Amino acid sequence: MRLSRLLEGIKILETNLESFDTEISSVSADSRSVQKDDVFISIAGNSYNGHRYIGEALQRRAAVIVTEDKSFTGGFPYIRVRSTRAAYALMWNNLCGRPSERMKYIAVTGTNGKSSTVSMTVHMLRASGIKCEGIGTLNASLTTPDPPELYPRLKELADGGCEYVVMEASSHALEYRKLEPLYFKAGVFTNLTPEHLDFHKNMRSYAASKALLFPKCEVTLYNKDDKYADAVTYGARRRISYSFLDNSADYICHNIRTELDRSSFDLLTIGELFHITLTLPGRFNVYNAMAACSLVHRLGMPKELIKEACACMPPVKGRLERVELTDNSYSVFIDYAHTPDALSKLLSTLREMTRGRLVCVFGCGGDRDRSKRPGMGTIATALSDYTIITSDNPRTEDPIRIIRDILSGVDKTKRYIVIPDRRSAIRYAVHSARAGDVIVFCGKGHENYEINGWGKTPFDEKKIIQEAHKERIGKEGNEYNPR
Hints:
The chain is of the alpha/beta class. It folds into three domains: 3-95, MurE/MurF, N-terminal domain (Udp-n-acetylmuramoylalanyl-d-glutamate--2,6- Diaminopimelate Ligase, Chain: A, domain 1, 3-Layer(aba) Sandwich), CATH 3.40.1390; 99-311, UDP-N-acetylmuramoyl-L-alanine:D-glutamate ligase (3-Layer(aba) Sandwich); 321-473, Protein-Tyrosine Phosphatase, Chain A (Alpha-Beta Complex), CATH 3.90.190.20. The chain contains 16 helices and 22 strands. Strands 7-8-6-9-10-11-12-13-14 form a nine-stranded mixed sheet. Strands 15-16-20-17-18-19 form a six-stranded mixed sheet, sandwiched between helices. Strand 21 and strand 22 form a beta hairpin. Helix 3 (84-95) runs parallel beside helix 5, helix 4 packs across helix 10 and helix 12 (340-353) runs parallel beside helix 13. It starts with a helix and ends in a 10-residue tail after the last helix.
Protein backbone atom coordinates (compact mmCIF):
# COMPACT_ATOMS: atom_id res chain seq x y z
CA MET A 1 0.00 0.00 0.00
CA ARG A 2 1.27 3.48 -0.82
CA LEU A 3 2.22 5.60 2.17
CA SER A 4 -0.26 8.30 1.11
CA ARG A 5 -3.17 5.82 1.45
CA LEU A 6 -1.81 4.44 4.70
CA LEU A 7 -1.83 7.95 6.19
CA GLU A 8 -5.43 8.80 5.28
CA GLY A 9 -7.23 10.35 8.25
CA ILE A 10 -4.00 11.11 10.12
CA LYS A 11 -2.97 14.72 10.71
CA ILE A 12 0.76 15.21 10.07
CA LEU A 13 2.35 17.85 12.29
CA GLU A 14 5.83 17.69 10.78
CA THR A 15 7.80 15.59 8.27
CA ASN A 16 10.98 15.63 6.20
CA LEU A 17 9.46 13.47 3.46
CA GLU A 18 9.22 15.03 0.01
CA SER A 19 7.05 12.24 -1.41
CA PHE A 20 4.39 9.93 0.00
CA ASP A 21 4.51 7.47 -2.91
CA THR A 22 6.68 4.94 -1.06
CA GLU A 23 5.23 1.43 -1.11
CA ILE A 24 4.73 0.17 2.46
CA SER A 25 4.62 -3.52 3.41
CA SER A 26 3.31 -3.34 6.99
CA VAL A 27 3.17 -1.33 10.22
CA SER A 28 4.91 -2.33 13.45
CA ALA A 29 5.39 -0.93 16.94
CA ASP A 30 7.99 -3.62 17.77
CA SER A 31 11.43 -2.84 16.37
CA ARG A 32 12.34 -6.55 16.54
CA SER A 33 9.66 -7.44 13.99
CA VAL A 34 10.33 -4.59 11.56
CA GLN A 35 11.14 -5.68 8.01
CA LYS A 36 12.22 -3.85 4.86
CA ASP A 37 9.70 -1.19 3.74
CA ASP A 38 7.72 -1.25 6.99
CA VAL A 39 6.53 1.78 8.95
CA PHE A 40 7.83 1.80 12.53
CA ILE A 41 5.52 3.47 15.07
CA SER A 42 7.48 4.66 18.10
CA ILE A 43 5.03 4.29 20.99
CA ALA A 44 5.80 5.29 24.56
CA GLY A 45 4.52 2.62 26.97
CA ASN A 46 4.35 2.34 30.76
CA SER A 47 7.58 0.36 31.05
CA TYR A 48 9.33 1.20 27.76
CA ASN A 49 9.69 3.98 25.22
CA GLY A 50 9.57 2.96 21.58
CA HIS A 51 11.55 6.05 20.61
CA ARG A 52 14.64 4.34 22.08
CA TYR A 53 14.40 1.67 19.38
CA ILE A 54 14.28 3.90 16.31
CA GLY A 55 17.92 3.03 15.55
CA GLU A 56 17.16 -0.70 15.56
CA ALA A 57 14.14 -0.17 13.29
CA LEU A 58 16.28 1.78 10.83
CA GLN A 59 18.93 -0.96 10.87
CA ARG A 60 16.17 -3.36 9.85
CA ARG A 61 15.43 -1.03 6.91
CA ALA A 62 12.22 0.57 8.05
CA ALA A 63 10.94 2.94 5.35
CA VAL A 64 9.48 5.58 7.68
CA ILE A 65 9.51 6.37 11.39
CA VAL A 66 6.34 7.76 12.97
CA THR A 67 6.96 9.69 16.18
CA GLU A 68 5.23 12.14 18.50
CA ASP A 69 8.44 13.36 20.17
CA LYS A 70 9.76 16.66 18.79
CA SER A 71 13.35 15.75 19.71
CA PHE A 72 13.39 12.70 17.39
CA THR A 73 13.92 14.39 14.03
CA GLY A 74 16.83 14.58 11.68
CA GLY A 75 18.75 12.20 9.47
CA PHE A 76 16.04 9.61 8.85
CA PRO A 77 12.63 9.69 7.14
CA TYR A 78 10.09 10.62 9.78
CA ILE A 79 6.55 11.80 10.31
CA ARG A 80 5.50 13.50 13.54
CA VAL A 81 1.89 13.14 14.71
CA ARG A 82 0.01 14.18 17.82
CA SER A 83 -0.62 10.60 19.00
CA THR A 84 1.34 7.61 17.74
CA ARG A 85 -1.20 5.29 19.40
CA ALA A 86 -4.08 6.79 17.43
CA ALA A 87 -1.98 6.72 14.26
CA TYR A 88 -1.18 3.05 14.88
CA ALA A 89 -4.87 2.09 14.92
CA LEU A 90 -5.73 4.31 11.94
CA MET A 91 -2.88 2.88 9.87
CA TRP A 92 -3.88 -0.71 10.58
CA ASN A 93 -7.47 0.11 9.69
CA ASN A 94 -6.29 1.64 6.40
CA LEU A 95 -3.94 -1.27 5.73
CA CYS A 96 -6.88 -3.68 6.12
CA GLY A 97 -9.17 -1.81 3.72
CA ARG A 98 -11.08 0.18 6.35
CA PRO A 99 -13.28 -2.50 7.91
CA SER A 100 -14.42 0.31 10.23
CA GLU A 101 -16.70 1.48 7.40
CA ARG A 102 -17.97 -1.93 6.29
CA MET A 103 -19.87 -3.15 9.38
CA LYS A 104 -21.93 -1.84 12.29
CA TYR A 105 -20.33 -1.88 15.72
CA ILE A 106 -21.53 -2.21 19.31
CA ALA A 107 -19.15 -1.75 22.26
CA VAL A 108 -19.59 -2.89 25.85
CA THR A 109 -17.47 -1.38 28.60
CA GLY A 110 -17.43 -1.61 32.40
CA THR A 111 -15.51 -3.50 35.08
CA ASN A 112 -17.67 -6.62 35.18
CA GLY A 113 -20.19 -8.20 32.81
CA LYS A 114 -18.57 -7.24 29.50
CA SER A 115 -17.98 -10.76 28.18
CA SER A 116 -21.41 -12.02 29.22
CA THR A 117 -23.23 -9.01 27.77
CA VAL A 118 -21.31 -9.35 24.49
CA SER A 119 -22.08 -13.09 24.26
CA MET A 120 -25.77 -12.60 25.06
CA THR A 121 -26.11 -9.76 22.55
CA VAL A 122 -24.46 -11.81 19.80
CA HIS A 123 -26.78 -14.74 20.53
CA MET A 124 -29.88 -12.55 20.32
CA LEU A 125 -28.82 -10.74 17.15
CA ARG A 126 -28.13 -14.08 15.50
CA ALA A 127 -31.56 -15.30 16.60
CA SER A 128 -33.05 -12.40 14.63
CA GLY A 129 -31.16 -13.46 11.49
CA ILE A 130 -28.36 -10.90 11.68
CA LYS A 131 -24.87 -12.17 10.85
CA CYS A 132 -22.67 -10.99 13.71
CA GLU A 133 -19.61 -11.88 15.77
CA GLY A 134 -18.25 -11.00 19.19
CA ILE A 135 -14.69 -9.95 20.01
CA GLY A 136 -13.32 -9.94 23.55
CA THR A 137 -11.80 -11.87 26.41
CA LEU A 138 -13.27 -15.20 25.30
CA ASN A 139 -11.74 -15.26 21.81
CA ALA A 140 -8.86 -12.78 21.65
CA SER A 141 -5.40 -12.35 23.17
CA LEU A 142 -6.58 -9.30 25.14
CA THR A 143 -9.97 -7.97 26.23
CA THR A 144 -9.62 -5.53 23.33
CA PRO A 145 -6.90 -6.75 20.94
CA ASP A 146 -4.04 -4.56 19.76
CA PRO A 147 -4.38 -3.08 16.23
CA PRO A 148 -2.27 -5.77 14.44
CA GLU A 149 -4.73 -8.39 15.72
CA LEU A 150 -7.96 -6.38 15.77
CA TYR A 151 -8.11 -4.83 12.30
CA PRO A 152 -7.12 -7.94 10.30
CA ARG A 153 -9.81 -9.78 12.28
CA LEU A 154 -12.35 -7.09 11.39
CA LYS A 155 -11.32 -7.32 7.73
CA GLU A 156 -11.84 -11.09 7.84
CA LEU A 157 -15.31 -10.64 9.33
CA ALA A 158 -16.28 -7.94 6.81
CA ASP A 159 -15.03 -10.05 3.90
CA GLY A 160 -17.18 -12.93 5.24
CA GLY A 161 -20.36 -10.85 5.14
CA CYS A 162 -20.61 -10.00 8.85
CA GLU A 163 -23.12 -7.21 9.53
CA TYR A 164 -22.53 -6.46 13.22
CA VAL A 165 -19.50 -6.75 15.51
CA VAL A 166 -20.14 -6.67 19.27
CA MET A 167 -16.93 -6.06 21.18
CA GLU A 168 -15.54 -5.48 24.64
CA ALA A 169 -13.92 -2.08 25.09
CA SER A 170 -11.42 -2.11 27.95
CA SER A 171 -10.25 1.03 29.74
CA HIS A 172 -6.69 0.32 28.56
CA ALA A 173 -7.87 0.09 24.93
CA LEU A 174 -9.76 3.37 25.21
CA GLU A 175 -6.86 5.12 26.90
CA TYR A 176 -4.46 3.71 24.29
CA ARG A 177 -6.84 4.68 21.44
CA LYS A 178 -6.98 1.22 19.90
CA LEU A 179 -10.53 1.96 18.69
CA GLU A 180 -9.71 5.32 17.10
CA PRO A 181 -11.16 4.51 13.62
CA LEU A 182 -14.39 2.98 14.95
CA TYR A 183 -17.75 4.61 15.56
CA PHE A 184 -20.49 2.64 17.26
CA LYS A 185 -24.15 2.07 16.59
CA ALA A 186 -24.49 1.63 20.36
CA GLY A 187 -22.34 1.57 23.48
CA VAL A 188 -23.15 -0.14 26.78
CA PHE A 189 -21.89 0.75 30.26
CA THR A 190 -22.33 -2.09 32.79
CA ASN A 191 -20.68 -0.88 36.02
CA LEU A 192 -17.49 0.52 37.52
CA THR A 193 -15.78 -0.98 40.57
CA PRO A 194 -12.13 -0.87 41.72
CA GLU A 195 -9.86 -2.63 39.19
CA HIS A 196 -6.65 -1.77 37.30
CA LEU A 197 -5.85 0.92 39.87
CA ASP A 198 -2.17 0.09 39.42
CA PHE A 199 -2.65 1.64 35.95
CA HIS A 200 -5.35 4.27 36.51
CA LYS A 201 -4.25 5.24 40.06
CA ASN A 202 -7.76 6.24 41.18
CA MET A 203 -11.44 5.73 40.31
CA ARG A 204 -11.78 9.20 38.79
CA SER A 205 -9.09 8.42 36.24
CA TYR A 206 -10.57 4.97 35.62
CA ALA A 207 -14.00 6.51 34.94
CA ALA A 208 -12.45 9.10 32.62
CA SER A 209 -10.90 6.34 30.51
CA LYS A 210 -14.24 4.54 30.20
CA ALA A 211 -15.92 7.84 29.28
CA LEU A 212 -13.81 8.09 26.11
CA LEU A 213 -16.09 5.53 24.45
CA PHE A 214 -19.44 7.27 24.55
CA PRO A 215 -18.93 10.36 22.34
CA LYS A 216 -18.23 7.77 19.62
CA CYS A 217 -21.65 6.07 20.06
CA GLU A 218 -24.98 6.93 18.43
CA VAL A 219 -26.85 5.57 21.47
CA THR A 220 -25.57 4.85 24.98
CA LEU A 221 -27.27 2.25 27.18
CA TYR A 222 -26.16 2.58 30.79
CA ASN A 223 -26.74 0.97 34.18
CA LYS A 224 -28.53 3.64 36.18
CA ASP A 225 -27.86 1.76 39.44
CA ASP A 226 -24.10 2.38 39.19
CA LYS A 227 -22.86 5.46 41.05
CA TYR A 228 -20.32 6.25 38.30
CA ALA A 229 -22.89 6.12 35.48
CA ASP A 230 -23.18 9.89 35.03
CA ALA A 231 -19.42 10.45 35.22
CA VAL A 232 -18.76 7.75 32.61
CA THR A 233 -21.54 8.66 30.15
CA TYR A 234 -21.59 12.45 30.46
CA GLY A 235 -20.31 12.86 26.88
CA ALA A 236 -22.92 10.58 25.33
CA ARG A 237 -25.13 11.89 22.54
CA ARG A 238 -28.27 9.96 23.51
CA ARG A 239 -28.66 8.03 26.75
CA ILE A 240 -30.96 5.10 27.52
CA SER A 241 -31.00 3.65 31.06
CA TYR A 242 -31.71 0.27 32.64
CA SER A 243 -32.13 -0.46 36.34
CA PHE A 244 -33.04 -2.92 39.07
CA LEU A 245 -33.72 -0.14 41.56
CA ASP A 246 -34.92 3.04 39.84
CA ASN A 247 -38.43 3.01 38.37
CA SER A 248 -37.66 6.13 36.35
CA ALA A 249 -35.23 4.17 34.13
CA ASP A 250 -36.14 3.41 30.52
CA TYR A 251 -35.93 -0.34 31.21
CA ILE A 252 -36.83 -1.77 34.64
CA CYS A 253 -36.39 -5.27 36.06
CA HIS A 254 -38.89 -6.79 38.54
CA ASN A 255 -39.80 -10.19 39.99
CA ILE A 256 -36.37 -11.82 39.77
CA ARG A 257 -36.26 -15.53 40.54
CA THR A 258 -33.10 -17.59 40.27
CA GLU A 259 -32.15 -21.25 40.75
CA LEU A 260 -28.96 -23.25 40.16
CA ASP A 261 -29.85 -23.89 36.52
CA ARG A 262 -32.15 -21.04 35.46
CA SER A 263 -33.62 -17.63 36.30
CA SER A 264 -36.59 -15.51 35.33
CA PHE A 265 -37.55 -11.85 35.51
CA ASP A 266 -39.94 -9.23 34.17
CA LEU A 267 -38.50 -6.52 31.94
CA LEU A 268 -40.64 -3.39 31.71
CA THR A 269 -40.37 -0.49 29.31
CA ILE A 270 -42.87 2.06 28.03
CA GLY A 271 -45.86 0.18 26.66
CA GLU A 272 -44.35 -3.30 26.95
CA LEU A 273 -43.83 -6.04 29.54
CA PHE A 274 -41.48 -8.96 28.87
CA HIS A 275 -41.71 -12.16 30.95
CA ILE A 276 -38.19 -13.53 30.46
CA THR A 277 -37.03 -17.06 31.27
CA LEU A 278 -33.25 -17.35 31.10
CA THR A 279 -31.32 -20.61 30.90
CA LEU A 280 -28.63 -19.19 33.18
CA PRO A 281 -28.53 -18.80 36.99
CA GLY A 282 -27.67 -15.78 39.10
CA ARG A 283 -28.75 -12.18 39.63
CA PHE A 284 -25.72 -10.80 37.82
CA ASN A 285 -26.63 -12.90 34.77
CA VAL A 286 -30.06 -11.28 34.99
CA TYR A 287 -28.32 -7.87 35.03
CA ASN A 288 -26.30 -8.79 31.93
CA ALA A 289 -29.33 -10.25 30.17
CA MET A 290 -31.31 -7.13 31.00
CA ALA A 291 -28.63 -5.00 29.32
CA ALA A 292 -28.57 -7.24 26.24
CA CYS A 293 -32.39 -7.42 25.98
CA SER A 294 -32.73 -3.64 26.36
CA LEU A 295 -30.07 -3.08 23.72
CA VAL A 296 -31.50 -5.36 21.04
CA HIS A 297 -35.03 -4.08 21.75
CA ARG A 298 -33.79 -0.53 21.21
CA LEU A 299 -32.21 -1.71 17.95
CA GLY A 300 -35.62 -2.96 16.81
CA MET A 301 -35.74 -6.64 17.74
CA PRO A 302 -39.34 -7.72 18.45
CA LYS A 303 -40.50 -8.77 21.90
CA GLU A 304 -41.36 -12.39 21.10
CA LEU A 305 -38.02 -13.01 19.43
CA ILE A 306 -36.18 -11.61 22.47
CA LYS A 307 -38.10 -13.98 24.77
CA GLU A 308 -37.37 -16.97 22.51
CA ALA A 309 -33.65 -16.12 22.34
CA CYS A 310 -33.40 -15.86 26.15
CA ALA A 311 -35.17 -19.20 26.60
CA CYS A 312 -32.37 -20.94 24.66
CA MET A 313 -29.44 -18.77 25.79
CA PRO A 314 -26.22 -20.86 25.80
CA PRO A 315 -23.95 -20.67 28.87
CA VAL A 316 -21.21 -18.08 28.70
CA LYS A 317 -17.89 -19.88 28.89
CA GLY A 318 -16.29 -19.52 32.31
CA ARG A 319 -19.04 -17.24 33.66
CA LEU A 320 -20.91 -19.08 36.41
CA GLU A 321 -20.48 -22.12 34.18
CA ARG A 322 -21.67 -25.37 35.70
CA VAL A 323 -19.23 -28.27 35.47
CA GLU A 324 -20.99 -31.45 34.41
CA LEU A 325 -20.35 -34.33 36.85
CA THR A 326 -21.54 -37.93 37.01
CA ASP A 327 -22.83 -37.36 40.54
CA ASN A 328 -25.29 -34.54 41.23
CA SER A 329 -25.14 -34.73 45.00
CA TYR A 330 -23.05 -31.54 44.99
CA SER A 331 -22.60 -28.75 42.41
CA VAL A 332 -19.46 -27.20 40.94
CA PHE A 333 -19.14 -23.92 39.04
CA ILE A 334 -16.22 -22.07 37.47
CA ASP A 335 -16.23 -18.30 37.13
CA TYR A 336 -13.88 -15.56 35.98
CA ALA A 337 -14.53 -13.38 39.05
CA HIS A 338 -11.22 -11.69 39.86
CA THR A 339 -12.31 -8.36 41.37
CA PRO A 340 -13.82 -7.70 44.81
CA ASP A 341 -17.15 -6.63 43.32
CA ALA A 342 -17.41 -9.63 40.99
CA LEU A 343 -16.50 -12.04 43.81
CA SER A 344 -19.04 -10.47 46.16
CA LYS A 345 -21.85 -10.67 43.60
CA LEU A 346 -20.94 -14.24 42.65
CA LEU A 347 -20.89 -15.54 46.23
CA SER A 348 -24.05 -13.63 47.19
CA THR A 349 -25.83 -15.16 44.21
CA LEU A 350 -24.72 -18.69 45.07
CA ARG A 351 -25.53 -18.22 48.76
CA GLU A 352 -29.22 -17.83 47.85
CA MET A 353 -29.19 -21.19 46.05
CA THR A 354 -26.99 -23.34 48.31
CA ARG A 355 -28.51 -26.05 50.54
CA GLY A 356 -25.23 -27.27 52.05
CA ARG A 357 -21.90 -25.47 52.36
CA LEU A 358 -20.73 -22.77 49.96
CA VAL A 359 -17.04 -23.45 49.25
CA CYS A 360 -14.97 -20.80 47.47
CA VAL A 361 -11.60 -21.57 45.84
CA PHE A 362 -9.72 -18.47 44.68
CA GLY A 363 -6.41 -16.65 44.35
CA CYS A 364 -5.21 -13.32 42.94
CA GLY A 365 -3.14 -12.69 39.84
CA GLY A 366 0.49 -11.66 40.08
CA ASP A 367 1.98 -8.47 38.63
CA ARG A 368 -1.43 -6.84 38.96
CA ASP A 369 -3.16 -4.43 41.35
CA ARG A 370 -2.09 -5.52 44.87
CA SER A 371 -4.57 -3.24 46.62
CA LYS A 372 -7.55 -5.51 45.88
CA ARG A 373 -6.06 -8.65 47.47
CA PRO A 374 -6.97 -8.04 51.14
CA GLY A 375 -10.51 -7.11 50.11
CA MET A 376 -10.84 -10.34 48.15
CA GLY A 377 -9.84 -12.25 51.31
CA THR A 378 -12.40 -10.35 53.38
CA ILE A 379 -15.21 -11.03 50.91
CA ALA A 380 -14.41 -14.70 50.39
CA THR A 381 -14.32 -15.56 54.08
CA ALA A 382 -17.38 -13.41 54.89
CA LEU A 383 -19.64 -14.93 52.24
CA SER A 384 -18.40 -18.54 52.07
CA ASP A 385 -18.74 -21.33 54.60
CA TYR A 386 -15.28 -22.56 53.68
CA THR A 387 -12.55 -20.79 51.72
CA ILE A 388 -9.59 -22.39 49.96
CA ILE A 389 -6.92 -19.81 49.12
CA THR A 390 -4.62 -20.82 46.27
CA SER A 391 -2.71 -19.46 43.26
CA ASP A 392 -4.08 -17.81 40.12
CA ASN A 393 -1.59 -16.82 37.42
CA PRO A 394 1.16 -15.62 39.78
CA ARG A 395 3.25 -14.56 36.76
CA THR A 396 6.63 -13.32 37.98
CA GLU A 397 5.50 -12.74 41.59
CA ASP A 398 6.12 -15.14 44.45
CA PRO A 399 2.80 -16.99 44.96
CA ILE A 400 3.33 -17.02 48.73
CA ARG A 401 3.66 -13.25 48.78
CA ILE A 402 0.36 -12.92 46.91
CA ILE A 403 -1.31 -15.27 49.39
CA ARG A 404 0.08 -13.24 52.31
CA ASP A 405 -1.58 -10.14 50.81
CA ILE A 406 -4.89 -12.02 50.64
CA LEU A 407 -4.51 -13.34 54.19
CA SER A 408 -4.13 -9.82 55.56
CA GLY A 409 -7.83 -9.34 54.84
CA VAL A 410 -9.37 -12.69 55.81
CA ASP A 411 -11.63 -13.10 58.82
CA LYS A 412 -9.50 -15.34 61.04
CA THR A 413 -12.60 -16.60 62.86
CA LYS A 414 -13.93 -18.20 59.66
CA ARG A 415 -12.97 -21.58 58.19
CA TYR A 416 -10.28 -21.39 55.54
CA ILE A 417 -7.18 -23.22 54.35
CA VAL A 418 -4.20 -22.27 52.20
CA ILE A 419 -3.13 -24.66 49.43
CA PRO A 420 -0.72 -22.75 47.14
CA ASP A 421 -0.71 -25.35 44.33
CA ARG A 422 -3.98 -24.85 42.44
CA ARG A 423 -4.22 -28.44 41.19
CA SER A 424 -3.92 -29.70 44.77
CA ALA A 425 -6.52 -27.14 45.88
CA ILE A 426 -8.94 -28.45 43.25
CA ARG A 427 -8.46 -32.05 44.37
CA TYR A 428 -8.95 -31.08 48.01
CA ALA A 429 -12.16 -29.15 47.28
CA VAL A 430 -13.70 -31.91 45.17
CA HIS A 431 -12.63 -34.80 47.38
CA SER A 432 -13.97 -33.16 50.51
CA ALA A 433 -17.34 -32.13 49.04
CA ARG A 434 -20.49 -33.10 50.90
CA ALA A 435 -24.04 -33.64 49.67
CA GLY A 436 -25.74 -30.30 48.94
CA ASP A 437 -22.46 -28.36 48.74
CA VAL A 438 -21.80 -25.77 46.06
CA ILE A 439 -18.13 -25.33 45.13
CA VAL A 440 -17.09 -22.37 43.01
CA PHE A 441 -13.62 -22.00 41.50
CA CYS A 442 -12.94 -18.31 40.89
CA GLY A 443 -10.52 -16.33 38.77
CA LYS A 444 -9.71 -18.52 35.79
CA GLY A 445 -13.09 -19.00 34.15
CA HIS A 446 -12.55 -19.67 30.44
CA GLU A 447 -8.74 -19.78 30.70
CA ASN A 448 -7.04 -23.10 29.93
CA TYR A 449 -3.57 -22.09 31.08
CA GLU A 450 -1.58 -20.98 34.12
CA ILE A 451 1.03 -18.21 33.96
CA ASN A 452 3.95 -18.42 36.37
CA GLY A 453 7.63 -17.49 36.42
CA TRP A 454 8.35 -20.13 33.78
CA GLY A 455 5.79 -18.81 31.32
CA LYS A 456 2.36 -20.07 30.22
CA THR A 457 1.57 -23.75 30.80
CA PRO A 458 -1.60 -25.76 30.00
CA PHE A 459 -4.12 -25.81 32.86
CA ASP A 460 -7.70 -26.82 32.04
CA GLU A 461 -9.51 -26.27 35.32
CA LYS A 462 -12.75 -27.91 34.18
CA LYS A 463 -10.94 -31.07 33.10
CA ILE A 464 -8.96 -31.20 36.36
CA ILE A 465 -12.20 -30.88 38.35
CA GLN A 466 -13.80 -33.71 36.39
CA GLU A 467 -10.74 -35.92 36.84
CA ALA A 468 -10.75 -35.26 40.59
CA HIS A 469 -14.46 -36.14 40.68
CA LYS A 470 -13.87 -39.47 38.88
CA GLU A 471 -11.07 -40.24 41.32
CA ARG A 472 -13.36 -39.39 44.22
CA ILE A 473 -16.19 -41.72 43.15
CA GLY A 474 -13.82 -44.40 41.88
CA LYS A 475 -12.42 -45.09 45.33
CA GLU A 476 -13.92 -46.30 48.56
CA GLY A 477 -13.35 -42.90 50.08
CA ASN A 478 -10.21 -40.80 49.71
CA GLU A 479 -7.69 -38.94 51.80
CA TYR A 480 -10.09 -36.05 52.42
CA ASN A 481 -13.40 -37.86 52.72
CA PRO A 482 -12.84 -41.28 54.34
CA ARG A 483 -15.76 -43.70 54.72
